[in-house]
């Protein structure tokens, strides 16, 4: 599968930032699949759904419209929800939504359709292992949990949001565990993915490294 770059990894490893930069430089569309699970979660919170009610979550995922614009912003039923999907409430519940098989099936189908229509850099948890198994370029991006929590903390502070390092680290650790232990499409390293540990690397360094690998250097 040409013109497709697939990137997986745990939360806070820099996937979205790296994928966005890479897409800009390659002239590809960036698809942040985490944003799609977040959009379903946000919609569920708005409706006051019970996150243990799998059937209601699947019904909801089936009834909503999720779109991206060229800038990578996400729209839920036509409304830009790029900010709303980053709330603490969504952070708390998104891994529960993402563990529901029926919800995953709906979103994976959409992701596969988008990859068939565009040149894409797609990032998430199961892109290399489930969604785009035939992708020519596969990467697994990771970093130590301390560094991942530190980056999220700095990111929130830069946006003048209240941030507590310990809470952020706990939330990331809990999501890591839920995402890698779940029954359906758990986070794992694909056999044919290149693993990049970004703990001591800058964004530019990671982007250059990935570009060099893609270019076959
Ligand atoms: O990447 P981000 O942290 O925004 O993803 C939010 C959550 O969405 C993850 O913790 C995971 O539970 C879920 N997710 C997933 N599969 C993907 C992308 C995200 O299960 N491909």
TrEMBL record:
Domain spans labelled Cytidylate kinase: 5-213
Coiled coil: 146-178
SUPFAM superfamilies in alphabetical order: P-loop containing nucleoside triphosphate hydrolases (SSF52540)
List of residues binding ATP: 9-17
Superkingdom of the source species: Bacteria
GO biological process, one term: nucleobase-containing small molecule interconversion
Broad EC category: transferase
Assigned GO CC terms: cytosol
Recorded family membership: Belongs to the cytidylate kinase family. Type 1 subfamily.
HAMAP family in the record: Cytidyl_kinase_type1
Name of this chain's protein: Cytidylate kinase
UniProt lineage: Bacteria, Bacillati, Bacillota, Clostridia, Halanaerobiales
Gene field: cmk
């Amino acid at each position: 599968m040409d013109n497709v770059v697939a990137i997986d990894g745990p939360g806070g490893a820099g996937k979205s930032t790296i994928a966005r930069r890479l897409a800009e430089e390659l002239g590809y569309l960036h698809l942040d699949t985490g944003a799609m699970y977040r959009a379903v979660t946000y919609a569920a919170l708005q409706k006051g759904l019970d996150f243990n009610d799998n059937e209601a979550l699947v019904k909801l995922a089936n009834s909503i419209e999720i779109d991206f614009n060229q800038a990578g912003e996400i729209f839920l039923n036509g409304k830009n929800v790029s900010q709303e999907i980053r709330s603490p409430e969504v952070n708390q519940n998104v891994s529960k939504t993402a563990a529901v098989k029926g919800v995953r099936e709906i979103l994976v189908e959409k992701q596969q359709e988008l990859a068939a229509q565009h040149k894409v850099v797609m990032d998430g948890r199961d892109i290399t292992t489930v969604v785009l198994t035939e992708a020519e370029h596969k990467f697994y991006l990771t970093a130590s949990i301390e560094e991942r929590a530190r980056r999220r903390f700095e990111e929130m502070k830069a946006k003048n949001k209240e941030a507590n390092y310990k809470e952020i680290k706990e939330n990331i650790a809990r999501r890591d565990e839920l995402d890698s232990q779940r029954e359906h499409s758990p986070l794992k390293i694909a056999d044919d993915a290149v693993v990049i540990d970004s703990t001591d690397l800058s964004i530019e360094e990671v982007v250059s490294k990935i570009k060099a690998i893609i270019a076959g250097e």
